[in-house]
Amino acid sequence: MKAQVDKDTCIGCGLCPSICPEVFEMDDDGKAVAYNEDVLEGLSDSAKEAEESCPVAAIIVE
């Protein structure tokens, strides 16, 4: 499973790293980044929750 953040769409709300800090963090530009793109099996539920919770649908986890 892979995680990606569309930085053009991201508004920098910080919700994804609060839900799944093992995959997402806030970058120096104030927007989220998937610093661990390869989502480990035990983190798939929280990564998907972050994707579903994103207010602008900037996260793709597949």
Automatic annotation (TrEMBL):
Gene3D superfamilies assigned to the protein according to its UniProt record, in alphabetical order: 3.30.70.20
Keywords per UniProt: Electron transport, Iron, Iron-sulfur, Metal-binding, Transport
Pfam family, one: Fer4_13
GO MF, one annotated term: electron transfer activity
Transmembrane segments: none
Domain 4Fe-4S ferredoxin-type, first and last residues per copy: 1-29
Function: Ferredoxins are iron-sulfur proteins that transfer electrons in a wide variety of metabolic reactions.
Entry protein name: Ferredoxin
